Each structure stands twice: as C-alpha cells, then as structure tokens.
Amino acid sequence: MKFDILTLFPEMFTPIRTSMTGRAEKKGLLDFNIVNIRDYSLDKHKKTDDTPFGGGHGMVMMTDPIFRALKAVGAEPVEPEDAASVGSKRIVYMSPRGRILDKAKIEELSREDELVILCGHYEGVDQRVIDHWGIEEISIGDYILTGGELAAMVLIDSVSRLIPGVLAKDEAVMDESVYSGLLEYPQYTQPREYEGLEVPEILLNGNHELIDEWKFEQSLLLTRERRPDLFRQYFDEHIKAEGGLSKRFRKILEGVAEQPYKLKKNQK
Q: What is residue 140's three-state secondary structure?
C-alpha cells in the first residue's frame, strides 16, 4: 500500500520508517511518499498560509500550494455537480471535525492500494481544497492537535497493521484489544515474582483450557469496567443473537454480565 503524505513538516514522519512500518517498507509492503507542500509554493519565501477572510485568529493554509502538491501525486478533483464523488485517488484530511477513525474506517482504508493524506496546520486549510478535491475529513478524537502530522501517523500505523504480511502473524491482528470486540486480558512475562508481585498461578499450570477461560473472563471484566459500550455490544452479539461462543464461554459471559464484581489487579 502506498501512502502519499502532504505536509509542511516532513521531518516529523521519521517514526513511520522505524519499527513495524519501517520493516514493512523495506520488504516492499508499504511505500511512504512524503511531500513537502512548501516545495509547491510559487512565493519566493515559500509561503503557504495567509490570514482568513472575515477575520479570526491564526492563519489558513492557501489553496495553490496544496492544489499543486495534489496534482503532483496524481490526484484528480471531483466533478463539481457531485460533491459525494471521489477522484482517481482517495484523499483524506486529518481534521477534528471529521469522522472518528474507528475499526470500521480503518478496515475500509486498508483495502485501498494508495491513500493520499493531507496534514493541515495552523487554523486548517482553505475550504475550497476540500470541496474541489472531494476530500474526506477524518479525526482521531475530540481534541485539538497543533497539526495533522501526529494524527496522520496514527492513521498510517493502524491501517498498516491490517495489510497482509506487515505483522509477523496476521492472525494476531483480530485477537488484539478492541478488534476481538473486547479489551485485551492482562499479560505477564519473566520473572514469575518481582518485588512481591506474582504472576497469576493459573497461567503457570499448563492447563490451556483453563488458561483460555481465564483470559476470556479477564477480557470481559476489563471491558465491562472500562468500556461498557463495547461490553453491551459484545453481549448482544453473542448472547441475544446466540452466535459464535461455546457453551463454557457463554456461561462465563452470562456470569460476568449478571454478577456484581470488583476487578482486582492480580486476580488468580
């Protein structure tokens, strides 16, 4: 998958060429084309922003440098009469007023062969950029960042994990927190005891059936405590709809849903 990243600060994207995404790029699974919008400014000082019409605080990124940068990566504008259409390449703009980046959107974006990501800065971009190019606005949460670069890296990392071959084990993607429908159970490694803190005994007894049940129950308890919305959805899908769970796992789910509990840090 290719990512065309349009930004005023290309140096901020060093992290995507490290760790998982960096290894995937070296293997040819990912391609990062980082485009400096300033390179497409015709101003001798490489100016890319100006004061907003109608007044207001801050500066707004200008149309011309962004238009030129989009043309340089092969994007095409939408038809004027069809605001819902998309051009030759899918373009997203990292914006606090956009749709929240969730599991469904990440899965949808991961099916693209190429994705153009526009990173705003200051007070954002001229609205004509969004309208002319049919750009989809995406947010990573209800808060404001200085610019779109950090949000873009969140999108890139989350989407890249779903590209076949990027992770060492593809099956691990859907088992992890949230993707399975539940938050992930607690994890432990060596040593067995550290400063009086012990690994739950059940993880050491070698009975994988009991271990699986413990992990499932812990995921349920964590999800019920921290994300009751996810827990209700999971319960409805697997109890009311009667789908997907074995009898013993259904019993555990029903027990967690019905009985009061207090989650402890080191349940055994």
A: coil
